[in-house]
Please model this.
Amino acid sequence: MIELVDVCLKYPKFEIKNLNLTIKSGEIVAITGNNANGKTTLVKLIAGLIKPQKGKVLFDGQKKGDKKIGIVLQNPDNQIIFNKVYDDIAFTLKNYKVPKEEFDSLIKEALKLVEMEDFTQSETFTLSAGQKQRVVIANMLAIHPDVMIFDEASVYLDTSTKQVLYRIFKRLKNQGVTVIFTTNLIEEIVYADRVAVLDNGQMVAFKEKEEVLKDLSVFRKLGFYIPLKLALIEQLQSIDHVDDEELLEILKGRLK
Ligand SMILES: Nc1ncnc2c1ncn2[C@@H]1O[C@H](COP(=O)(O)OP(=O)(O)OP(=O)(O)O)[C@@H](O)[C@H]1O
Ligand SMILES: [Mg+2]
Model:
């Protein structure tokens, strides 16, 4: 369980005030919000990359303890250090004090998960933005984290590779890993269990996904663009069938 207790953080033009939030172990949480409303700031607070000026961030009731937290930041260029893909992941493993004899198999496994197994010896600077993002994701998967945070990690991925990422969310959940992802593509909330909505540093909603899908008014009030898929799910009240194929079948039935 991750708890944010009365967390406060003040920047000259932005403030998080007494934020309280509890995330259960093994759930997938989507943090949504338009640009500059605090998504990245919030996940950095959870990951311990920035400290709250007041309040606490607790993991199972303790300050960080021995929990391994993986974070994939918004811009992959800021997270790749080495020239070779293998060396980059090996460096992360070294930082997490993983024994050297495990490197080969962990690196292979992680690159396979992001469908980059043929790039083990590639030069990182030759990779496309989406490939770099996948290497950063592999870096974090390799450490077998307890909590995995993705900050807009799907942005550079093409449509089919986005599906690879969503399958990784599911897989991590099945392994008991807590998954937190931020997004301003609100159709991605269908891959979450619970959805948080940030507005100007305040959490204006934190609800079960089904509840949000049934009634999108929280997004409308904040002026979000509502994508057709979410509008359809809401209109058809098809909250248990959010898969594209299933939705299409429901629509076909209606159009007959
Ligand atoms: N180190 C900092 N110093 C001052 N202000 C900051 C700092 N980091 C973030 N901010 C401000 O905090 C606000 C929230 O930024 P944040 O990056 O958390 O938003 P976001 O929701 O992730 O946006 P985006 O969708 O563009 O990624 C912004 O107004 C930003 O300018
Ligand atoms: Mg951000």
